[in-house]
Design goal:
Two copies of one chain form a homodimer.
Chain A (H helix, E strand, L loop, with lengths): L1 E2 H10 L6 E5 L12 E2 L9 E2 L3 E4 L1 H5 L4 E8 L13 E5 L11 E4 L3 E4 L2 E4 L9 E2 L10 E3 L7 H9 L4 E5 L4 E6 L3 E2 L10 E2 L2 H11 L5 E5 L3 H14 L2 E5 L10 H7 L3 E5 L1 E4 L5 E5 L4 E6 L3 H19 L7 E5 L10 E11 L2 E6 L8 H6 L2 E5 L10 E7 L2
Parallel strand pairs in A: 1-20, 6-7, 14-17, 14-18, 15-16, 18-22, 20-24, 23-25
Antiparallel strand pairs in A: 2-13, 3-12, 4-11, 5-7, 5-8, 6-10, 9-10, 19-21, 21-22, 23-27, 24-25, 24-26, 26-27
Amino acid sequence: MIPFENAFDQVLQNTLDLGDETVTLLNSTGRILSEDIKADRDFPPFNRSTKDGIVIAFSAIEKGISSFKIEGVLSAGMPQKSLSTDINCFEIMTGAVLPKKADTIIMYEQTEIQDGCATITSIPKKGQNIHSQGTDEQKGAILLKKGTEITAAVIGVLASVGKKEVLVKKLPKICVVSTGNELVEIHETPLPHQIRKSNSLSLAAALEKVKITPTLLHIADDKNAIEKELEKAFLTHDIMMLSGGVSKGKFDFIPGALTNLEIKKIFHRVAQRPGKPFWFGIQKEKKKVVFSFPGNPVSTFANYHVYFLPWLKRSLGLKVEKQSAILEETIQPHPSLTLFVQVTTQWKDGKLIAKTIKGNGSGDLVSLALADGFIRVPQGGEEIAQNTVFDFIAAS
Amino acid sequence: MIPFENAFDQVLQNTLDLGDETVTLLNSTGRILSEDIKADRDFPPFNRSTKDGIVIAFSAIEKGISSFKIEGVLSAGMPQKSLSTDINCFEIMTGAVLPKKADTIIMYEQTEIQDGCATITSIPKKGQNIHSQGTDEQKGAILLKKGTEITAAVIGVLASVGKKEVLVKKLPKICVVSTGNELVEIHETPLPHQIRKSNSLSLAAALEKVKITPTLLHIADDKNAIEKELEKAFLTHDIMMLSGGVSKGKFDFIPGALTNLEIKKIFHRVAQRPGKPFWFGIQKEKKKVVFSFPGNPVSTFANYHVYFLPWLKRSLGLKVEKQSAILEETIQPHPSLTLFVQVTTQWKDGKLIAKTIKGNGSGDLVSLALADGFIRVPQGGEEIAQNTVFDFIAAS
């Protein structure tokens, strides 16, 4: 049994780099850029009107002219025009190209328009209301760096430079394996000694949030079946995510099977609650990683968030950032185990305030469904005072 | 022009209830339950072993017996057995059914097993290591209430009660409409006076996060085309989400077209930056709502998060909860406009600390891509001190 800190470090030291792949723009949300994105032209690409009004040459103002004959109307999407003389103006709309020989835009509110003529009611500043070409970004500038997460706003940038396809980090192919002879499918009516599967569906739903659609596989508690099925699954997946079969029971064949399959055990059993029997291993040459979680739902759910999600972030080249929360109550740490305690949270004056949920133990799915996440309570002797800051692990 | 607070209230007063629909369990993540979920049996459904070890009748301990003949091994998934006499025991695994005539489980660590006999090394407590039937939840109890968001943990609960299909709130059908003759598709090479569409793709990516796949529609800046196309789109969508065409320019036909289509304007123009020309309207009888955002990307993005997301939450029957953040810097409010200022955030001791991004103005997509969200700075005169708490609107 190793301490949490050690287990966490080892998980983060055993990441996988699975390379890159190209996806279409609208399939890229939530993925991680594997290329720098450069401006393919200046932004804005032309001197752009930022107001609806008239556009003039400032030289006219210097000559004392304040009334201008309207030559026409310029709107966004029209090719650039040219002002024929500085005693004229164009009406111009937001987004339109500044015409040649013009340099100043006056909004409608500061003009009076009558009989094809615009009279200005206040003296403009030369160059006003123009968003000049290249002032946001110049052609060739790096707009987004490799390693950026593709959010909705990033999609906007990618669209504006014409990236209909984009190079992103590959995601691991994951097989979620449930074991346990007591488990039946959700559409079945369980016999009195049976229960329906829930862990694998819960994991599938959580993985969906990180853009991974796992394969779901159920294997009976049979040593040979487990080895054979896992061996097959390893051929087409990078990650095995197992739940159940890692305790000390007589039918907990998983650790043995994984060792026989030449997955190197990094650790088995962590000084933590829930999730003590967690088994973690790797096959470096073949780039296979195994997260083997205990069978009870809260253990699996906590381990997934505590270990797998940071592992995934690190594997994708992202920083693993810690979130924190302030616990309103006192809490008694465990003398030898790191605790992951279910909490609800709410915002108060820029602070994330946590309250523990009184659950019925590690099997209680219903209290888990109420939780916003877990706080991590390091092992210790003394009761911890209220309003102490803890690491917070948000639930998916 | 109306103040932000007024606009926000009016948006939340004009929600739509679109009713319910049934979806399959694995398609229900992120949706909102429209039914109470009840326990179809007790949880746990039987007296369940929580340890690997042996199971005995405590009456034996009272008689001074400490060594037990092993009758067999009980594992999870086996039907209930019965202890034949209290001088015997079973080996029992975690998750297995407690046998009849037995009531106490002793973990392996506190036994010595030799020659088919288990000797206990310490005195157990009667009933220990048993998770009793119905102690988590009793049959018929409400496990999840109508109105619960379906998270990964909720999926686990739904699976365990056999909900292969689930009744959820319907989501609105949304048509994202871009207007503007300057816009070309992302795969096209724009002419010098043209730019590629980005708003509608950015909105589509943001909507994906709330499980909505919108229709994308582009309409030229032509009054008749706009009316005709919008009228058609209204037939098959609940929400129009437009960007562009709501300023005061000569080609901003949207407000007129919407009025002609008998969409009642609730407001047009809000005292805010970005996003001043925002137009909001509703057709109550036909249950149609229109969010018509200004054309520039930052305005559309801010308005979507500030108005649409709370509107959606309220329409789905959820509480609109406010998040907040602490701004490290001083900030100058605007005398008459509510500002939505782009910030990056980081966690520090349970607090969300914000820093402003120095953007190039409301058209600057690249600075938007760096932002974690917006803080809302109410209008005012005096500079606001550092470390003040602001409402924070997280970016998708």
